[in-house]
Amino acid sequence: MLRQLSIHNRSAGELRQLAAQRRELAAAKTGSLRALLLKEAKLLDFQAELRIWVERPGTETHGTDQRGDPRPANLQSIPYDLAPLVAKLSSRLGLTAADQQAFLAATPVPRYVEKGECLIEQGEDAAELVILCRGMTHTVRTLVDGKQQIVAVSLAGDFLNSGGVLFRQARNSIFALTPAICLSLPFKQVEALARTRPAIAHALWLETAAQAAIQQEWMVWLGRRAAQTRLAHFLCEVTYRLHLTGIGTQGEFEFPLTQRELADLLGLSAVHVNRTLQILRGQNLVELNHRRLKVCNRVGLYEVAEFDPRYLKWPAFSAGGAI
Q1: What is the pTM of this model?
Q2: Where are the alpha helices (DSSP H) in the chain?
Q3: Is the Cβ–Cβ distance between 156 and 132 less than 8 Å?
Q4: Could you read off the pLDDT of 159-211 as tens digits, one per residue?
Q5: What residue ranges in 106-179 does DSSP mark as E strands?
Q6: Which domains does the chain have, with CATH numbers?
């Protein structure tokens, strides 16, 4: 339904009016039709926010936060669903307002993804860069015998398949751990933008390099660290990355991974994960209840994890500047 609305030619006000109309229709419906109308309303509101943001000036960075990470000057004015992506594009990838506008304006209709839905399927030919704006996903490799290994967890603002610009066949599947909103940018558009705007090519390089740094840390703790250190390190990493998006600033956030999924990710049994979580709880380092994780003692958790966040802190490169 949503793709039939020709929303690219609509103003932000018209998009919000359409969203309100769908909510009014949804109030009188039930079941799957109601859910569909509410989903479309959310996407229309998101598209309105996106339209307003790419047309406004000034998304430069200003100063740093309490941990020394750069932050956008007007982060509080960014719409909720766009904030993590804009924060990354501006303060971490160094894109100017003009480059952000060119990048975001090239994206087609946003997509709402239900929890458990597959965004990218292993083995399929990939034709577009998928960007997570809100929610959490995990990347899974399925082996011939059916066994699975979780090889990445992605958060709001992440590019889910930046390597696909070069390797067009998906090596892994990506599933939504929570309801999510994402944007998709055709690789042909990505290549055209990279040719005409060097800062965007530089940003893609930075994003790919950052993901490679995370993968190297995963390799180390999977191969060499004990279960308690392994789990603690992963929790530290997710907490710190959420902090960078502005979501996990209070040390408490939604944590949708089940113990079985943590086992697949950490290379442990579900029983071992449960025991290790109990140890961390007993040391008053974390609380995990009702799919919410709270870090009770950040310094203590860092010590157990042997966690050094420098691999997550990107140098303040100027956009398109020298490496």
Answers
A1: 0.79
A2: 12-27, 31-54, 83-87, 97-105, 187-196, 198-224, 227-245, 259-266, 270-282, 298-305
A3: yes
A4: 998 877 777 788 899 999 999 989 888 888 889 999 999 999 999 888 888 99
A5: 111-113, 118-120, 128-134, 136-142, 148-155, 173-176
A6: 2-80 (no CATH), 218-311 (1.10.10.10)
